[in-house]
Every structure is written in structure tokens, then in C-alpha cells.
Amino acid sequence: MNMQAGIKLTAAEAALVDTYNEQLGDLPGDGATLIARDTLLSDLKKSGLPTRRVEAWHYTDLKALLRAVPAFVHGASAERVDPIVPGSAVLSIVNGKAHARVMQEGITVRSYGEALLDGSAAAGLVARDGDDVIGRINGSFVRDGLSIDFADGFAAEAPIEIQSVQNCGQVNTRFPVTFGTGAKATVIERHLAVGGEAALVTSITEVRLADDTDVTWIIFQSEGEADTHLGQFKAELGANAKLRLYVINGGGKLVRQEIHVGVVGEGADLRLRGINLLGGESHTDVTFTVGHDVPHTTSTEVIRNVVLDRARGVFQGQIRVAQDAQKTDAKMSCNTLLLSDEAEFSAKPELEIFADDVQCGHGATVIDIDHTQLFYLMARGIPENRARAMLVNGFVAEIVEELEDETLVEALEGVISDWLEKHA
Amino acid sequence: MLEIKNLHARIAEDGTEIIRGLNLTVRDGEVAAIMGPNGSGKSTLSYILSGREDYEVTEGDILYNGESILELDPAERAAKGIFLAFQYPVEIPGVATMQFLKVAMNEQRKARGEDELSTPDFMRRVKEAAAGLQISPEMLRRPLNVGFSGGEKKRAEILQMALLEPKLCVLDETDSGLDIDALKIVADGVNALRSPDRSVVVITHYQRLLDYIVPDTVHVLYKGQVIKSGDKTLAHELEANGYADIIGAAA
Q1: d(CA A43, nearest CA chain B) in Å
Q2: What are the domain boundaries of chain B?
Q3: Contact B226, B24 (CB under 8 A)
């Protein structure tokens, strides 16, 4: 849906262009970086923000939903918080400014801002495709982030928490991450607001899993009630690589989290688990694509949504199986607990299969509280409200319990029950 | 303890009348068996006693220690000491058994104005009660009733009963699906709870369970009414002759 020259920009589109021009002087980068940024912004200007007529954005009409863009705030500094899992090694990003530091042996952390400055990041500042608005906005504005490399055979007990905390303005970050052969790690990518004013956050994570890696990656987003969060997680899985990816949304006013996974090594396994806790007048979109490109790979996707008030949620899930990718086993399900008459959830599963010997399936359900279960809990003396809360909690906690690490399970269950206590 | 007077009740959704003028009195400490053929209203009676909202009482009353409980919801009834051991205990994925037990025990205590249990005290009580019912710690770590065998589910019901210390226990077909060993464990669990201030209503299709939980009174339910009451010999009579004679005599 190209926007013709001369067509009026929306307020948000105009603000993006203006804020780019204002910041141009101090966006980090050499000449190559600047050219890459300019290209992305001019593409953005040309096509504008996507409307519902762009298929990838059909349920999230960004042009209509993104009303304003807050100005970049120099020197803003939000308070860091304790990690979700006690004892985690924390890497913090405060209002978009990363603090690279020396970590334990086997992890190399470098400033992405420096990679922008010296031009080595410029080649990565490209959009995935013509609909990649997140890539364009983030690539134009990105100031900092962290490159993290896990050495071959790395193994750690405690999780690494990448904590991106903000309280206003614009936050545009990138996280290129690699896991060496046989590495095993748990990473929590956390985006949160601590009070403050409306913010626009964009963040792109690019993860490469070498052969035989075993990675648990948890994205936990709890931005503020007025915030826009545009996230993108891209991963490539080598042979026998295992990625357990949990995406938990529990905040933000307008949220789009994209997940794009390429399963390129035989024997690789992706487990995506999504939990959307939606309340107020928020709009949250999780858009997922996985490409099975080689034979003998598996993926399962389970999305659980709890929707309250006048919140709206979207899950788009696309499984692509290439012609050579025989014996692919892929299953996707999306279950929604709608707890208000005005709440809404749209699910769009999509299978594109070019191989003939595969097992692929999908299912979507919308349910209410199970009355038999409610009666059972109440018959044991648990008052109705508490019993309902336990069932709602159980509906999402069920998929958290698949994780083997008990400390992690407990921490995530705590996050979920806190949210439900506050909102439900 | 329990006095059911001329109770009429129907299924809320379609208005089908199931209980049609039922009268029953259960004294303190009494074990009363309710027997009857399929479709006589046995399970419905257990649900109505515990307050399931799928049923509507249209006439009559249920007095528990002299007070009507019809206006109370299931949680309020439970807090007052009424316990239903389900014929089909419900599986609840995502709710941990231990967490459920703790919440249930503490909510009942709260409703009665008692202090919450400390975690060590709670753990000790569960451990003791579970051991007697041959319930393994591994079973307690699972989500509530999920993946439990039929026998495990019934034992878990009796465990809950032991921990919640109700005054009126209603056992709905607790013997169904149990082999003889499991039946003995469950019956021992129930017998251990017999006391002068606790009454038990045993709903069952077969006399078999009553060899292990010996009742003080036996009541035959048919078409939503108690058509005959007697002592434990009535159960043997039913076992020998079936329901036809009694139903014929009542009709």
C-alpha cells in the first residue's frame, strides 16, 4: 500500500519524520550507518504506517492505532529493578542506553552502540521485507543495545536477564546474540516501564543457535499503560538445536511482538509458548512465522490468552514447510479465556506446506471458566472470586510448568499471579 | 445434623424434576447409607446438598444443624463443614495439588475466624494424612487430579476430607471404579473419621461398600423420594432381592 508522494502523513508518521530529523545529529553511526538509516526512513515515509489492507498487519492497523510519537528525552534515567529470577546475572539497558559489562567466563558482551559508531552494524540495518515496519522504525532510530556471544559448550546455572527499563520518551534497541556449539543457557529478555510518561519502544533481537544448543529464551514485556511496544525476535536454529521460547505480554497500550524463526538444521526443535495477559483498552498482537527448511525438524506453538475489560488481542501464526523438509512435525494451538463481553481476540493460523510427508496441525478455541472446575473448588470452601482467579491462573500456569527449572517456574508463576491479582 | 424436609428440586436448565418430596434426617454421628437404582436422584441429592447451581430447589428445605442452607453457595456450605466426595473428581491442570489443599484449608479457617496454618504445620498435616491413605509425595506434586488413576482420585478425595475435617461428609459413589484393595484403603480412611459429632451420608449403588463402612441407617431412594428406611439389614435385603420388591411395595 504505497503512499503516493504528496499524500498527507498522519500525526504519528509526521512525528516519526520530525523526530528523526531532530535526532539526526546525535544518532550514533558512521557514513554507512547513516545511509542505512536514511534508506529505512525514506521507505517508511514512502509507504507510511501499515493499514489493515496490508495482510501482515490486518488485525493491527498501525496507521489508525499509533496516534502520537513521544519525543526523545535526553538523559532520562529510570530506576532498575530486581531480576525476575533471584540470582540472575543482569545486563541493564536504561531508557535505551546499554551498560555493557564483563560477565562470567564464556559470555562476551559488547556495546551495540559502538558497533553502530564504527559502522560494523550498518549491514544489519535492513528491513526483512516490504512490510517490516518494525525493522524500518528501529533501524532508523536505534541508538544502543548489546551484542552477546555465548561460547561453545557454555553452561550456566543462573539465568541472564537483559533488563530494558524505561520511564518515558523513545527507546530503540538491538540485541544480536549468538550461542556457540553445544551452549546451554536461559535468557530473560525483559522490557518494562517504571512509572513515567508515554514511551515508544522498539527492540529487535537476533539470535543464532549453533548446532546442539539448548536455549530457553523468555521475553517478558510489561510496559506502561500508555506505551507502544514494537518488538521483533528473530532466530535461526542449527542442527539439533533446541529453543524454548516464552513470550509473555503483560503491559503496554499498543503492542506488536513479532517472532520469526528459521529452522535450518536437521533435528532442531522449537517450542513457542505465548502468554498474553490483556486488560484495559490495550491492543496486543503476537505475530509468528516459522520456516521449516530442512527434513526432520519439529515445532510446537501454544498460545494462551486471558482477556479482560475492553482489551483486544491478536495471534497470527504461520508455519511454512519447504519442499525438502520431509518429516516435519508442527503443531500450533491458540486458546483464549475471554473474561469480559467487550474483550476481543482474533486468531489467524496459516499453514504453507510444500512437502508431502509431514504432520502439521492447528487449533484455536475461545472458552469461558469451566463451571465444573469452579464448583469443585468452591465445594472445598474456596470463595468464588478466589476460585475463579485460581482457574484463570492455572489456565496460563499450565504452560509455564512445562519448564523444568523450578526456580524459573516459580518466578514466572509469580509474575502471572501478580498480574492477575492487579487486573482480574 | 441434617434434616431434609419435603425437598423438591429440578435441573435449572430444562426444569426436569429430579427430587420429588424427599424427607431424610441424619443424626449427629450417624452413618446413613442412601441406596437406589440408577436415575433415582442419588447424585443429584449430593449436588444439592453441596449447593451446585445447576439445580434449583422449588419446595421444601434443607436444615443443617437447625439452619436452612439453601441460600448459601458451595464455598459457604463447605466452610460450615459440609463436604462432598465427588463420584468423578475434577481434573484441574495448572492448579497444583498442594497449593489447592493449602488454599482450601486456609479459606475455610478464615471463614470460621481462625488463623491461617503455618507452612510447616500444613506440611505436617498433609504428610500424616497422606501416609495413611498411601498417597505418595509424587502424587501431591502433580496438578490437581491430573493423571490420577480412578483409585488415586478417590483416595485424594478422602485425603481432602481428612484435612478439611468436615462435620457432614457426603460420599457420592465413592466405591465406583475401585478394586477391593483400594476400597479397603478408602473405607479405612472414612472409618478413621467417624466420630460422635461427625455424620456421614454414603451414597452407593451396591451393598459392597457397606461391608466396610457399616451404616447405622439405610434409605432407599426411588424417583426422588425415600421410599423405605431401615438399619443395615435393609442393605443385605436389597443385595439379595434387588430393588423390585421394595419399589413394588411402595407403588
Answers
A1: 46
A2: 2-250
A3: yes
